[in-house]
Amino acid sequence: MVKKMELPKINKRFEVLNKAENDEADLYMYGTIGKGWFADISANDVRHKLSNITAKTINVHINSVGGDVFESIAIHNILKNHKATINVYIDGYAASGASVIAMAGDKVIMPRNTMMMIHKAWTLAAGNAKELRKIANDLEKIDTAVLESYTSRFVGDRSELERLLDEETLLTAEECKILGLCDEISDEIELPDEEDEQEETSVKEEILNKYIAASLDGKAVAQTTENNHKPKEEKPMNNASIIYQFLSSLTRSENN
């Protein structure tokens, strides 16, 4: 059974700050996306906040582990259809549904120490075989809807995007820029310490290497990678192997 990625705890913050000149406003979206007692930010909440903003530019600050997929898509569309220029800032983490929301920005800015996580939809379910098959079919339809939120930005093929979603991929700011999921990398901001990222599968590396930006205008170009042809480094023996060899040598000595 594949272990799901553990998501950090994020303190709630959902507010609008208007700049003095009234040409810009800041909308902070920190917390879980969804409706009900367990969530912090809903589509209706965002719609209400935006209805009171008359600024020409709205800076949306995101720090969220995601949440309800339908609420996330609704917030994405509310921001996308707003008449103001939407600048999205990833202040810490934009995971799952929060990354869908981020794709609504006219510009997406990520400090170097921030991250994004994209994946396919998942749920908890119980029922008989027929009911579970229907749930699986519904999830595949939801995956298609989620995928459309990224396609206008992603520089690669649709099949490559599907593979990244299927792998539940964690992306750095630099990786997001290479793949077209963010436009600009800014200076770092202070964040709580997090555990080191575990080694990813070769899917992300393969796709990233293909689309590393090599021109000044930021267009991604294909390049041949030799990563898959490098000889594998010999792995050091673990403690169990060392003890086994030691005991084996003692046995051979006694027999001699």
UniProtKB/TrEMBL annotation:
SUPFAM superfamilies: ClpP/crotonase. The keyword Cytoplasm applies. GO terms for molecular function: ATP-dependent peptidase activity; ATPase binding; serine-type endopeptidase activity. One of its GO terms (biological process) is protein quality control for misfolded or incompletely synthesized proteins. It holds the Pfam family CLP_protease. InterPro entries: ClpP, ClpP/crotonase-like_dom_sf, ClpP/TepA. One of its GO terms (cellular component) is endopeptidase Clp complex. Keywords: Cytoplasm, Hydrolase, Protease, Serine protease. The keyword Hydrolase applies. Belongs to the peptidase S14 family. This is ATP-dependent Clp protease proteolytic subunit. It comes from Parageobacillus thermantarcticus.
